[in-house]
Amino acid sequence: MDAILLQILNGLDKGSAYAMIALGLTLIFGTLGVVNFAHGALFMLGAFCAVSIDKLFSMEMVALSATETTAWGTPLEIRTLYVEAWFGDFGQWLNEWSVLVSILLAIPFMLLVGLVMERGLIRHFYKRPHADQILVTFGLAIVLQEIIKAFFGANPIPQPAPDALSGMADFGAAVGMQAGAVVYPMWRLVYFLFAAAVIGAVFSFLQFTTFGMVVRAGMADRETVGLLGINIDRRFTMMFGLAACVAGLAGVMYTPILSPDYHLGMDFLVLSFVVVVVGGMGSLPGAVAAGFLLGILQSFASMNEVKQLLPGIDQIIIYLVAVVILLTRPRGLLGRKGVMEA
């Protein structure tokens, strides 16, 4: 039972990232009909927002001590963070919680990136074949990837979690099991709760606001909504920005779990598209459900007992599930009838 619970937690951790990226992909495909292969790059840009803020808050001023010397007789260097010198204890708090501060700055940045991407490039490919959309967005992803590589280098950049959330949580004791039976990194639990909050906020926005209701109506019948005098194109552009924000926030919070590098977006992109296909193209609930389902399956496939029985199964389990789904239910688990079906 302990091992099963631990693997479920691992699956929810991976599934949270899959679900958030797949949710953004599905929002774009469902509203604009665009297959966006640059969406993984948006996840990467969010991660490097956190890297940039951490580097900014970690900048130090160096002064030479007038009284203290090193073992070689030279004046001792005294290093002080700029934010601590400027803001005192609040500056120290900013440095400690830079990941969470990055969220506030990543939201407007990713919204701007999404709007510029949609208005400057994607809008010209709405009526083009999906193959053209894939080629141009994949090319954009490579360009963004190389820009990040040029500025930040090719090596992963470790990002620490705040000290208060960097330890282990006794999850077993919290659910009534023996103390110490199931301990789990606290930040991974925070990431799952954060993903659940973001996903819930997106669904609530689409379900309970007038803007969201119009968008859902436009996803179902764009032409009719346009005939009512509603500028549905402008609303869909905002949805592209929202999808970019979701991907960026997923990247920001994932940095303490996996050190970001320039090909982080590509690593998640393919898996996220598989999640979208399994859940159903254009189905928001399907994308979220498939993200968590495939994350849990991948976690169980990573168990040593399973890998000894079926070597390499953890690397291909997601693709095997996708093949089975496409053969038996081409529209996906929760996809609309007629979508991706002959």
UniProtKB/TrEMBL annotation:
Keywords: Amino-acid transport, Cell membrane, Membrane, Transmembrane, Transmembrane helix, Transport
Subcellular compartments: Cell membrane
GO biological processes: amino acid transport
Membrane topology, as annotated: Multi-pass membrane protein
Top-level taxon: Bacteria
InterPro entries: ABC_transp_permease (IPR001851), BCAA_transport_permease (IPR052157)
Gene Ontology MF annotations: transmembrane transporter activity
TM ranges: 21-53, 97-122, 134-152, 189-215, 236-257, 269-297, 309-328
GO cellular component: plasma membrane
PANTHER family per the UniProt record, alphabetical: ABC TRANSPORTER ATP-BINDING PROTEIN, BRANCHED-CHAIN AMINO ACID TRANSPORT SYSTEM PERMEASE PROTEIN LIVH
Family: Belongs to the binding-protein-dependent transport system permease family. LivHM subfamily.
Protein name per its UniProtKB record: Amino acid/amide ABC transporter membrane protein 1, HAAT family
